[in-house]
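Fold this sequence, please.
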Amino acid sequence: KVFPKADVTLGNVDIGWGLNFKINIEKLALSTTKNNQHVEMMSVEQLVVKVPFWAILTGSGVIEIKLDAPAMNYHEFAEGNNWSYAMGEQKKEEEKKSEDKKVDAASSTSSNSALGLFGSSKINLKLSDVAVKYSLRDNSKGEIKVSKFLIKGLNFETTTAFEIASTANFVMKDNSKVS
């Protein structure tokens, strides 16, 4: 619905029950094709979400989210980019406002109840080997790599710390390189 012109590729999906509810998704990708040019939008080698059973029952506990090798791509076409193209035709402002009011009314109670269910829970988020790539109309391109991005204890009640390690490489339109 959000990306009608995008193709979704999904590898193995394992769901486990026990002391933890666990979802393991391997090889998730989103791409689009314009003028016979295949352009990747995003991909993840592995996504693991682990929710302890007591976090569901008591509204507390530590929820673990791990993403291995997530990649985001931004590619500009002569007009627009891969993300706007994949979203398809944009609706008029009046139609959007009307739909937004319907969605807001329906989702306000469900989002509040979901937050209440996990309101005291903490989230540990670990991303490894992250890549953000871009290519622009003027032929400049670049890549930002994050080898590790870690957030421990993300919650709505106290402060949270995070750690990041990264590198960046850019190729300018005159083919000079900056790192």
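The two ends are 38 Å apart (CA to CA). The longest strand covers residues 37-52.
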